[in-house]
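Entry:
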Amino acid sequence: MPHAPQPPSVPKAVTRALLSAVLLLGGTVAVLGATAGAAQAACGTTNLALNKPATSSSNENGSLTPNKAVDGNVNTRWSSAFSDPQWLQVDLGAATDVCQVVITWQNSYAKAFSVEVSPTGAAGSWTSIYSTTTSTGGTQTLNVSGTGRYLRVYGTQRATGYGYSIKELAVYSGTTTEPPVCTNPPASGALPPTFIVFDPSMSAASIQSQVNTVFAQQEANQFGTQRYVLAFKPGTYSGINVNTGFYTSVIGLGRNPDDVVINGDVTVDAGWFGGNATQNFWRSIENLSIVPSVANNGDRWAVAQAAPMRRVHIRGKLNLAPNGYGWASGGYIADSKIDGSVGPYSQQQWYTRDSSIGSWVNGVWNMVFSGVQGAPANSFPSPPYTVVGSTPVIRDKPYLYLDGSTYRVFVPNLRTNAVGTTWSGGSTPGSSIPLSDFFVVTPGTGAATINQALACGKHLFFAPGVYHLNQTLNVTNPNTVILGEGTRR
């Protein structure tokens, strides 16, 4: 039961000292210095943990995630793995004078745990402001004293055979260093004109005209400053060929690759350099499917390094060499499916990861495969195939997509011993973040403004462009996503 309030004559510093002594000696005191109602009134009535970034040592499954413990809803919860120790951590956004913590446990509560604060969240920086070895669960209102930006509940002994499970974690303060005011990101429709969005209702001639205009500028623009994204909304497009030059990203805006179907081609060739593709750098394709216009030849993607193909379904063959089989100098395929054969021909080297292919035609210097269904047998140096059965640990890059008319960013889950695509069994597992949670950075935005958004807990979405920054970007919040489309930073 709570103790009676301290007399007004007892200084606050003395109260804190007494609290610290009791915690160190006994380790089982739930509250000190006021009743629950009076303490919350003294601390303030704003739950500073509400909807703040939360992380954990583990999750029981993909639905019982740490954000569920700070969403203000007691019908949702976080739950850990079935082992000790485990922790739940919340980033309060700024140095905070914490005077009360309220934990609403599910039936799987902690018998022994501590509440800790830290200025940085780094290992070795935590200070305990409460601990117990005799908790009985339920809703615990803990009057505490400590200052930190990060607060965590650190469980060391479970009361049941299940994990630790918290419905809600609330934090109250009497004095808070307010986080900087966030600059709201532009609405999704405010992306710059270099982010060109196509709709399946548009005519093939209109789309082709815009694509040709970009390609005419970018085909040989090896060291220029222009950057473009050609983005296709979910649907089917027919009779187009997206020639892809320097600093151009071609992306689908579906949740999965087959949500965008191009009956035609997305082409990289080397006419600008006399048929030699060894300098076809700095371009990409992602998250769409292609039905090649000429089935026997397949889609042509004659690139060199720094030109990835991710989350692409080629419904036919894929040709990695330029027209005339002039040299090409390596590239990268990930999380993709090629129904037919992949013909590298004059490609000197290539890396294919966590994909599915019909077959692989040949090799020049070194063709590397990890987690690829349909890969040839390991045979280096003759043929030069280096094959690893699975990728030990990998997380595929986040990507932009449309959920109805709302832009969101999807963050794929971490995978271990990965084989094949993330989407072979349906939608890619992971989490989705609305673009409204991102600060959309456009060329000319200063580093100070970007850092202000980061300090406020925003993710970053860099629109196409070149960015000259006069200071380091400070990423201090766990799980911050920084995604660029059509940029070089």
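Residues 1-41, 185-189 have pLDDT under 50 and may be disordered.
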